[in-house]
Specification:
The protein is an alpha/beta fold and 300 residues long. The chain folds into two domains: 30 residues; 264 residues, Rossmann fold. It is built from 13 helices and nine strands. Strands 1, 2, 3, 4, 5, 6, 7, 8 and 9 form a nine-stranded mixed beta sheet that branches. A hairpin with a 5-residue loop joins β3 and β4. α2 packs across α12, α6 packs antiparallel against α13 and α7 crosses α13.
């Protein structure tokens, strides 16, 4: 017997069981899957996705950034990266998901999309599900999957948004951006059962403009749609972002004290406070479960 009152052999077995229990608990650790969307291009959506990933990593999280603009990806371009392979090589069977993974600033992991590959922009739902299954099978420690969606309401946008835990809609203070963001929310809610949306006004002059922009879209949505919209701050128009883009750097890394960086750091802290999905059984299981519920024709 020892000070714990346990036989040493029993205590060793207890430690082994405890370690195995911790290992299993970590293996089941749910991740937050966030689809970052916009009704139209040019609103800064990919910059939000890239800098959110870096800001989360700066706070100690382990994000995986999935460039889901499969035929016209540019996450790698924004960060000055030159991947040898991309997701088109996974779809073709030439490479595994692990082999196309690249590492960006602050050790964020990135799944790069193809650029200028037409067939990647028109993947069927089964192929999209296979990609998600491949991400779920990665032996990768991650807290977040950030999905940088293509702009608009194409099939891949709808598929990934339906299954994500959170849909973050980025918009700017332009009539077309507001109209198209509303159209995206309308299609996802009426046709695909997505009821909750986070809304992020981007490239605004100040917080008041951001609040007013959110109120404009929320007022219309409240009148015609059965949805819940939540504003999660706003991001100012800041020349520091343009300078960072020219340098192919994340602005939160290159100019951490700039107003745009502070807003993005606040966004990352807000995201950290979002609850996990109630039905998250671990890794990507809940994501695939929801995808299969929406698309019973998928086989995995």
């Amino acid at each position: 017997m020892n000070e714990s009152g346990l036989n040493p052999m029993v205590q060793d077995e207890y430690r082994i069981d405890q370690a195995e229990g911790l290992r299993r608990m970590r293996a089941r650790k749910p991740i937050k899957v966030i689809a970052i969307a916009s009704g139209k291009g040019g609103v800064g959506k990919t910059n939000i996705a890239v800098n959110l990933a870096v800001a989360l990593a700066q706070q100690g999280a382990k994000p995986l950034l999935f460039d889901a603009d499969l035929g016209l990806g540019n996450v790698d371009v924004l960060l000055g990266l030159s991947p040898r392979y991309n997701l088109s090589h996974v779809i073709s069977g030439e490479k595994s998901m692990e082999e196309v993974l690249i590492t960006g600033p602050w050790n964020i992991r990135i799944l790069p999309a193809a650029s200028g590959v037409a067939q990647m922009a028109n993947l069927d739902t089964q192929s999209q599900a296979n990609l998600i299954q491949g991400i779920g099978d990665l032996s990768l420690d991650m807290d977040y999957l950030l999905i940088d969606l293509p702009a608009g309401i194409a099939g891949d946008v709808l598929t990934f948004s339906q299954a994500a835990q959170e849909v973050l809609v980025v918009l700017s203070n332009e009539p077309a951006s507001i109209t198209d963001a509303y159209a995206l929310i309308k299609v996802l809610s009426r046709n695909h059962g997505v009821r909750r949306f986070k809304v992020l006004p981007n490239m605004v002059r100040d917080r008041r403009e951001g609040d007013a922009l959110f109120q404009r879209i929320a007022k219309v949505a409240d009148g015609f749609l059965d949805v819940t919209l939540e504003q999660i701050g706003s991001v100012p128009l800041d020349p520091a972002l343009r300078a960072a883009v020219r340098s192919q750097k994340a602005v939160v890394e290159m100019y951490p004290d700039a107003p745009v960086s502070r807003a993005l750091q606040d966004l990352a802290m807000a995201v950290e406070r979002w609850p996990h999905a109630y039905n998250a059984s671990g890794h990507m299981a809940f994501f695939m479960e929801r995808l299969l519920m929406k698309h019973p024709e998928i086989s995995i």
